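User: I want to check something. If I give you two sequences, will you return the structure for each one separately, not as a complex?

Assistant: Yes, each is folded on its own. Here is the first sequence with its structure:
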Amino acid sequence: MIAYLIKSFRDHPASVGESYFEHAAFAGRTGVLLIAVGLAALVHAVLPFAFERTASRTILRLAARFHNRTGTGDN
């Protein structure tokens, strides 16, 4: 079981050409950004003039980041 966990910690980050810590940083930044964009979208739902293009621009930027990563793993 321990060997499987260690292998899992190494395999996925390696599949996208990153170390564990590089992968953790990328995933952490992405998560925080998604939370912020989600909050902006909720504000936009109530106040349509606020954050008019924030969510769409950010989603497109994130899609490009994921597309440009190395490897074929589930990013």
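And separately, the second sequence with its own structure:
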Amino acid sequence: MWARMFSGVRRWYWLAGAGLILIVIAAFVLWPRSEEEPRARQYRDVSACLLTDSAGISSSAAKPVWAGMQDASLKTLGQVRFLSIAGPQDVSNGRTFVNSLVLSRCAVIVAAGKLPVETVTEVARESPHQKFVIVVAGDQTPAPGVGNVSVVSATGEDATRTAVSNAIAQALSA
């Protein structure tokens, strides 16, 4: 029986199958492995929240701010998220979105763009225990003397990104 099984063409099938099995085993045993398996990032229970207009983080005002917030997240392991003002693009509607961020316990709320800055400036007076950062362009004037609002001047994408990153890292580390 064994002689018939290993004779002729069948012998080649058996040898090819056995060789294939040995190759698979050798590849599995000898395949290079990384020394340490990648792990999920463990975030701290603190977050910075960005308020944008309806264009979201793709707007020219929000792009460098969002990038700076992500840089700060890497430095501090704090979480970052954003919320866009949906619906009418006015301060009275924007208040709802700012208040949502206040109630969701953001450690710091960042505003980028004309409408979000105006809205945060108004709400900041009513929320004295909440920290705010507003990013103002050269044609905007910052909020006058509100103690819980920090101002970052947008002087270019790289400078804005760095300034926002530093401001958020400081706020999340406190």
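Because they were folded independently, the notes below concern the second chain alone. Residues 57 and 63 are 5 Å apart (CA to CA). The mean pLDDT is 85.
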